[in-house]
Amino acid sequence: MTVVEAHVATSTVMLELLPELTAQRVHPTFHVSLIQAHIPNDDEQFPCRDAKSYYDFGAVDEPKWFVDEILAYCWVG
User: What is the pTM of this model?
Assistant: First the structure.
């Protein structure tokens, strides 16, 4: 992510977000207190950490079920 605009009067920065974040409608403006420098993974401290796994940004973990046919129904009322 890169900084697109910085506003000194409001202490905010506008970031260029990943397409996954913009699809989830994440607002690109953040207060400077929320911005931190990226620290890469230390393989000596965390040898089994997979650096290639990313957060799915709100993808549903449950599988979707599709209805093939309705076999019966019960009318109530």
Answer: 0.49
